[in-house]
Structure formats: structure tokens, C-alpha cells
Design a protein that fits this description.
With 83 residues, the chain is mainly beta. It has a single domain (15-77), classed as Luciferase, domain 3 (Roll), CATH 2.30.38.10. It has one helix spanning 32-38; strands at residues 15-19, 45-53, 59-64, 68-71, 74-77. A three-stranded antiparallel sheet has the order 1-2-3, with no helix packed on it. The protein has a two-stranded antiparallel sheet with strand order 4-5. A hairpin with a 5-residue loop joins strand 2 and strand 3 (59-64). The longest helix has 7 residues, at 32-38. It is globular, with a radius of gyration of 14 Å.
Length: 83
């Protein structure tokens, strides 16, 4: 998805990766505001990852739209050096 317009993108167009499956989280425990910031009205989870897919359906992650990752209850600052 284009993070600025919300429009779905085609093959090889970089945007934010959204996911929607039965196994995805339902929300943050006792934190409705955080849940609303991550899960939209249609149930799509905004991962904060940037990526694209090929015409064959292969997905690639190319970076982050957010600088903060949470890994095993640790907050990690993410900076991608693009060349």
C-alpha cells in the first residue's frame, strides 16, 4: 500500500506491507489506541515494513517506515542505510 495515499500498489512498486490472516494479532492488551494505530477498520495490520512484490507473487522487504522495532520485549532503533 502507498503509505501516503492508501492506494494498493502493483508489482515492483514499493510501499508499506499490510497483512491480514486468521493468525494475526487481534490487538494490544488493554491498549485500544495502540491497536487503532496498527490495525485499520478492514482488519489489515500495518506492519511498518516497506517492501514490494513481483508479478510472480514473491515479496521482498526493503526497509522500515518506522524507526523503532520491538524484539523480545526490547526496543531496537532501526536505520537502513540506502546506497
Amino acid at each position: 500500500m502507498d503509505p501516503l495515499t492508501g492506494v494498493a500498489l502493483g508489482p515492483n512498486e514499493e510501499g508499506e506491507v499490510l497483512v491480514q490472516t486468521p493468525g494475526v494479532m487481534k490487538g494490544y492488551l488493554k491498549n485500544d489506541e495502540a491497536t487503532r494505530n496498527v490495525i485499520d477498520e478492514q482488519g489489515w495490520v500495518h506492519t511498518g515494513d516497506l517492501g514490494y512484490h513481483t508479478a510472480q507473487g514473491v515479496f521482498y522487504i526493503s526497509g522500515r517506515s518506522k524507526d523503532l522495532l520491538k524484539i523480545d520485549n526490547h526496543q531496537v532503533i532501526w536505520r537502513l542505510n540506502k546506497k
